[in-house]
Here is the input.
Amino acid sequence: SSIRPGQSVTLSGFSVEDADGDELTVNLSSSGGTMHLADASAGLIAEGYGNGSTWIVLAGTAAQIEAALNT
Here is the structure.
């Protein structure tokens, strides 16, 4: 499907897992639009968060990252 300029799209259904329970880093980028997180969970480090940038870097536990991506 296509997304028109100015149109918002909500993505969901992300699953993040780590058997060791270590802190993870997830890098997201967009080549044709900007991204926003609706909510960043407590303890989650989010660079680019909320500023409409073309990239977001999330660092935290798998549960924190998954919660932020599915909000």
